[in-house]
Amino acid sequence: MKDAFGLPQSLLVLGGTSEIALAVTRRLIARRTRTVWLAGRPSPRLDEAAGQLRALGAEVHTVDFDALDPAGHEDALGKVFAEGDVDMVLLAFGTLGDQARDERDPRAAVRVAQTNYTGAVAAGLVCAGALQEQGHGSLVVLSSVAGERARRANFIYGSSKAGLDAFAQGLGDALYGTGVHVMVVRPGFVRTRMTAGLPEAPLATTPEAVAAAVELGLRRRAETVWVPGALRMVMSALRHLPRGVFRRLPV
Questions:
Q1: Residue 97, Cα to own-chain centre: how many angstroms?
Q2: Which of 16, 18, 23, 55 is least surrounded, with the fewest CB atoms within 10 Å of its CB?
């Protein structure tokens, strides 16, 4: 069960090798979390992540999970919930893709959309149903400021995150009053393996900063978290710029 400040004892991470997700998990283990499920495709990286978390004192399990196999989500994730209550689910899988390549290869673009949106919808609904059945818990969804307004530089990725963000907000409204809390996290540019080699955007942040914001959001039972917080005002301004002006910006 979660404590009085909303921090979980048990945590299921969808995207168990995500640098942001692992930073959040380490921070929660340092506070209170004792049982962790890392869901992802079997790999040495997943095993290594589990070992590092065990060294911090948590009981860590891995579960075979593929975002691109929605038909298998209910079975794979159902086994986790069958072991006992899960206080928090962190939906953290996703792929950035390669905008230039994906524009030329529709199949690659579809893979980005299927991972970031279709897979997230399937997994999110499975977990939401399980949390609702147990009567409590938080579903934390890693979205992105890229979903706030489509940019020429990454509109395929951004459109998939826009869909995910809208889905998570609607799911939060649908679950309001059930005991299940949905929190959408909107980071800006985060320095990770996924963004290595890309030009760094203004207000760039780190996985550890995202983790701190997630903890604060859980304690406050927030519905939306921006990382860093200043992006809320920046994106509000960009969202309302005339399209002709926005098109000329170097973004």
A1: 16
A2: 55
81 CB-near residues (< 8 Å, 6+ apart): 130, 134
Q: Which is the catalytic residue, given 65, 157, 167, 189?
A: 157
> CA nearest 117: which of 67, 75, 77?
67
pLDDT at position 201, please? 72
Helices (H), the chain: 19-31, 44-54, 73-82, 99-104, 106-113, 119-134, 155-175, 207-220, 231-239, 243-248
Q: Find all residues with CB under 8 Å of 42, minimum gap 6, and list them.
A: 62, 64
Ordered structural domains, the chain, with CATH = 10-247 (3.40.50.720)
Question: Which pLDDT band holds residue 235 (cuts at 50, 70, 90)?
Answer: confident
* Residue 197 confidence (pLDDT): 72
Reported as a single tens digit per residue, the pLDDT across 166-188 is 999 999 999 999 999 999 999 98
Question: What is 64-128 written as a DSSP string?
Answer: E--TT-GGGHHHHHHHHHHTS--SEEEE-------HHHHHH-HHHHHHHHIIIIIHHHHHHHHHH
Report how far residue 79's alpha carbon sits from residue 86's, in angstroms, rounded to the nearest whole number.
11
CB 131 within 8 A of CB 137: yes
Taken as a whole, the chain contains a residue count of 251
pLDDT digits (tens, 9 = 90+) for 16-25: 999 999 999 9
Element (H, E) at 41: none
The answer to whether residue 157 is catalytic is: yes
Tokens of residue 33, six digits: 């979390």
* CA 115 and chain centroid, separation: 12
